[in-house]
Design a protein that fits this description.
alpha+beta, globular, RT_dom, Reverse transcriptase domain-containing protein, DNA/RNA_pol_sf, Rev_trsase/Diguanyl_cyclase
């Protein structure tokens, strides 16, 4: 599989993950700013991508990708004869054949969809296109994580051409773009063509907030806010549980002293941050806030930060 799927696709692959693609897009924005180049992004969202995979087209794609016939036959048997019915009230409709969609929860489904998506990109001939961002002699015009596809170019017209190619090839195999969720991130307003999607100044890319100017301070503030919500919810649940045990059993169990849950939320994608003094102070303040909540030390207790730590 790895020899057929290029590095542009990081979804469900060994030693690859969402953070890699977040790092890639941040690095591209940074390099574009360094060389004073405009960069245009299109974040494509497919409508029910995994549910729209056509089985017959999938088998043909696997054959074109060079998958051995005996493996394709095994997959055919796995998907053959699938039926479903719809229950309405106390009645059920007639049974019907299922000819689309990969199996939910099956580990093979992830690989099958990657082949399906790669077939679209190959037919769109994105690798052969001269459009995109040129870095270290390599032309980069797309980044993918499963069905999350990001197109990039140095001009409006180039981005339009890439989007039209991908849209056309996607519709040929049954995948349709969700216009409401497809976003364009550009250094300025799009004027040369009527876009299919909303123009935005920032975008939540694989769980991380990406801005057109590459400023990470917004993402750090967002992460700290999310972590505070997590810590508040967890702390209230744990404290009620411990107090209930202490009251019912006459015991005094120690209070939890672990802010790891909150920091795992904060530090997601932190490899790409450029931390200034202001952000450093915010992170330190969040750590102290976590400890004070876990130890039930109010701000009116007049205890120094050193005594808390």
């Amino acid at each position: 599989m790895n020899c057929e799927i290029p590095d542009d696709q990081a979804g469900f692959r060994k030693v690859r993950g969402t953070r890699d693609q977040i790092a890639n897009i941040c690095w591209i924005i940074e390099k574009a700013r360094e060389f004073q180049k405009n960069i245009y992004f299109c974040f494509i969202d497919y409508a029910k991508a995994f549910d729209c995979v056509d089985h017959n087209k999938l088998w043909k794609i696997l054959k074109e990708m060079g998958i051995p016939d005996h493996l394709t036959c095994l997959l055919r048997y796995l998907y053959a004869g699938q039926e479903a019915t719809v229950r309405t009230g106390h009645e059920t409709a007639d049974w019907f054949q299922i000819g689309k969609g990969v199996r939910q929860g099956c580990i093979l489904s992830l690989c099958l969809f990657n082949f399906y998506a790669e077939y679209i990109m190959r037919n769109a001939r994105l690798e052969e296109a001269q459009t995109g961002i040129k870095i270290a002699g390599r032309n980069i015009n797309n980044l993918r994580y499963a069905d999350d596809t990001t197109l990039m170019a140095e001009s409006e017209e180039e981005l339009k051409n890439l989007l039209m190619k991908v849209k056309e090839e996607s519709e040929k195999v049954g995948l349709k773009l969700s216009i409401q969720k497809t976003k364009i991130m550009a250094p300025g307003p799009i004027t040369s063509w009527q876009i299919d999607g909303e123009t935005v100044a920032d975008f939540i890319f694989l769980g991380s907030k990406i801005t057109a100017d590459g400023d990470c301070s917004h993402e750090i503030k967002r992460r700290l806010l999310l972590a505070r919500k997590v810590m508040t919810n967890l702390n209230s649940i744990l404290m009620r549980w411990l107090d209930g045990i202490n009251n019912s059993m006459g015991m005094s169990l120690s209070k939890p002293q672990d802010q790891g849950h909150g920091f795992s939320v904060v530090m997601y994608g932190c490899e790409n941050w450029t931390i200034q003094k202001a952000e450093h102070r915010r992170i330190d303040a969040f750590e102290l806030w976590c400890w004070r909540r876990l130890l039930r030390v109010p701000w009116t207790a007049r205890r120094s930060n050193q005594s808390i730590l």
